[in-house]
């Protein structure tokens, strides 16, 4: 049971955790803080939080669990702002989409309390953001990755794991670097590709005409280009190396496809497309490999 849960960043990710834990009766009081006063008020109105704090210090005072769910570029300033006000026993965790940068920020700012920081990442979300996008079942049957480091207190990791399990999530542990490489491939690169494609089409004078004839495939591929620009800027800058390395591989692949089309090399295209189809068909049929549930 959590007595006082502090949510820093009461948007989709923070708000959904608060709603899930409240729904399970697992928390006595939820205090929320977001930089935007509008978000704080909305979170109160929607029953996501019981109390809106006016500052980071007020939000974390007396909290036994602190969940930081702000864009990655704001993590450092949040850790700086809470460090001196945390209760001695407080456990701190986060939902940032890439872990190395967040872990470095927490290490730099939290001092002694760094051992009570459990880095985490819910592999669950949508293209929507803000408190109004939050919903209590977001994490059900979804994966949560915790990336504790050598300094992390194992009892703190166990508590954070238990908290996520209450939301209906499956919790896994990974090391930080592996997490950032894997997520760059399955989440960060696809978002960059979708933003680029939709951005490119939006530049065309005949964009509306072109989109009028878009089929379901375009809708599927482009949904994530509706995601928040600040959040994705921060993820790209925060997981720079892994994303750049994948982009380089991706460029190679696209160049080879370009060459094959130019040379009317249908065999090459059949080879690439059929290997991709086989890989996707087999893995999507296996729920242990790819999460088939709706986002
Ligand atoms: N959106 C998604 O599908 C997923 C997002 N994440 C990660 O979760 C974190 C939060 O994302 P969302 O909930 O989607 O964002 P959001 O935009 O819905 O909510 C973020 C909240 O943080 C507040 N905020 C921004 N800067 C702040 C600051 N300096 N101090 C205090 N509050 C501040 C905003 O006012 C907003 O209320 C990000 O780090 C993101 O990478 C992780 C998994 C999925
Ligand atoms: O909307 C989608 O399909 C997503 O991929 C959501 C998402 C965004 C960022 C994450 O770190 C994890 C999940």
TrEMBL record:
Pfam short name (any one): PDH_N
Species this protein is from: Methylophaga thiooxydans DMS010
Coiled-coil residues: none
Catalytic activity: prephenate + NAD(+) = 3-(4-hydroxyphenyl)pyruvate + CO2 + NADH
Keywords: Amino-acid biosynthesis, Aromatic amino acid biosynthesis, NAD, Oxidoreductase, Tyrosine biosynthesis
EC number: 1.3.1.12
InterPro entries: 6-PGluconate_DH-like_C_sf (IPR008927), NAD(P)-bd_dom_sf (IPR036291), PDH_C (IPR046825), PDH_N (IPR046826), Preph/Arog_dehydrog (IPR050812), Prephen_DH (IPR003099)
Listed name of the protein: prephenate dehydrogenase
Single GO MF descriptor: NAD+ binding
Gene3D superfamilies cross-referenced by the UniProt entry: 6-phosphogluconate dehydrogenase C-terminal like domain (1.10.3660.10), NAD(P)-binding Rossmann-like Domain (3.40.50.720)
């Amino acid at each position: 049971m959590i007595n006082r849960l502090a949510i820093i960043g009461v948007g989709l990710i923070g708000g959904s955790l608060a709603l899930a834990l409240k729904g399970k009766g697992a928390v006595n009081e939820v205090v929320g803080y977001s930089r935007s006063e509008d978000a704080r008020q909305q979170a109160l109105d929607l029953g996501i939080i019981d109390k809106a704090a006016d500052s980071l210090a007020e939000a974390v005072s007396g909290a036994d669990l602190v969940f930081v769910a702000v864009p990655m570029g704001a993590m450092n300033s949040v850790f700086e702002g809470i460090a001196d006000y945390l209760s001695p026993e407080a456990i701190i965790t986060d939902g940032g989409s890439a872990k190395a940068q967040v872990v470095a920020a927490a290490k730099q700012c939290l001092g002694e309390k760094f051992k009570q920081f459990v880095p985490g990442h819910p592999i669950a979300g949508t293209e929507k953001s803000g408190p109004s996008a939050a919903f209590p079942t977001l994490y059900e049957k979804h994966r949560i990755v915790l990336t504790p480091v050598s300094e992390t207190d194992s009892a703190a990791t166990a508590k954070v794991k238990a908290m996520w399990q209450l939301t209906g999530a499956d919790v896994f542990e990974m090391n930080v670097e592996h997490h950032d490489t894997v997520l760059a491939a399955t989440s960060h690169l696809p978002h960059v590709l979708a933003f680029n494609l939709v951005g490119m089409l939006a530049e065309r004078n005949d964009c509306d005409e072109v989109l009028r004839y878009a089929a379901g495939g375009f809708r599927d591929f482009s949904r994530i280009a509706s995601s928040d620009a600040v959040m994705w800027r921060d993820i790209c800058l925060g997981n720079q190396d892994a994303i750049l390395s994948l982009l380089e591989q991706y460029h190679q692949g696209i160049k080879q496809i370009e060459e094959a089309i130019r040379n009317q090399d249908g065999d090459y295209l059949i080879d690439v497309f059929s290997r991709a189809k086989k890989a996707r068909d087999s893995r999507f049929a296996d729920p242990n490999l790819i999460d088939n549930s709706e986002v």
